[in-house]
Amino acid sequence: MNCPRIEVDLSKIRRNTQTVARRLGPREIGVTGVTKAVCGHPAIAQAMLDGGAFGLADARINNVQRLRQAGITCPVTLIRTPMLSQVDEVVQLCEASYNTEIAVIAALASAAIRKDKVHGIILMVEMGDQRDGILPENLADIARQVMKMPGAVLKGIGANFACLSRIAPTASQMASLYDLANEIEGVCGPFLKTVSGGNSANLPWALGSQDTGRINDLRLGEAILLGVEPVSGDRIGGMHTDAFTLIAEVIETGEKPAPFPIALVDPTLAKLRIVPTNGVSTRLILAMGHQDTDVLGLSMPEGCIMIGATSDHLLIGANRSTLRLGSEVRFQMNYKALMHAMAAPDIEVKPLYDLPVKQPRQIQGKSEHLTLV
Predict the structure, then answer these.
(1) Are 52 and 15 in contact (CB under 8 A)?
(2) Looking at the domain assignment, is residue 373 inside a domain?
(3) Distance (Å, whole) CA 14 – CA 8
(4) Which CATH number characterizes residue 179's domain?
(5) First-to-last CA distance in the chain?
(6) CA pair distance 90, 83, nearest whole angstrom
(7) pLDDT, tens only, 65-100
(8) 19 and 154 assigned to the same domain
(9) Containing domain of residue 250, as a range?
(10) Can you tell me the mean pLDDT for 50-70?
(11) Last residue of a domain, one of 199, 226, 253
């Protein structure tokens, strides 16, 4: 098989989606599967849909185009504010988009009219993450303007948490968001179909004991793909954390002599050292490096330590005599490493298929609380 490669256990993606959909269902919160970290990979997206996601979302129009070309017809939402240069593609490929700029919304509306469509607008509200979003005090005015635009329909509002700030949302912030939904309906009239409460960092709140109010959607990527809660990095109980495995090949083995003394132009460079390899029996070089993934986001296999990396070489120490020239070494990844590896042109993505078990879109039953283990 080709190396480096990512093996994707689609059954684990599907079961992770089933788990969160089953737990959120009794709270009337739907799951939107976010495919941006996997570059809109169609097989992974389909596993999310098979597991109970009612729609998909991505941040890049090229990824959405990949989904459509693969025959995926479910609703897809663009979750990054559209670029003015791509409004025609957004309207053609996406049922809705998250927006913060009235000029962009006007351009989307015009593009929709040209294509004889109506494009859904979800207004992103700034609730403390300090990334993208309309200030709450300006929301009603922008909502009124959207209501007057032929070609656009105000579909809902949403917020983002724990992306830039890395701070989990509070119950008071979430209450403020659904209060804003009520306010917008009072000002503009029509019922808001979508009140999107955020991303995977919102799961502890959504599955807690408090009332979830008007929130009826969560945009979930990391929780489904990796089975972890983004802020703490803790595993979510009942979720698989090993759906993705990055595999690299050994291209050199053996020991190296101690570095020769060199004259350093910059004295501060004297503080830089490669990790010592004491305690390991084998020094290995793998055909993978910074150009392929975030090497600091890799989990070392048992008995191995990270020594260092360059653009296309990864050096590890191992106490396993079975690892030889041509051997494959398997790594688990965090979200950043996964995102980089999936986008790397030299890494093959190999889905591991099985027979999906279709689940009802609406699942009744007692809610299970999120358990972090």
Answers:
(1) no
(2) no
(3) 11
(4) 3.20.20.10
(5) 35
(6) 9
(7) 999 999 999 999 999 999 999 999 999 999 999 999
(8) yes
(9) 244-333
(10) 98
(11) 226
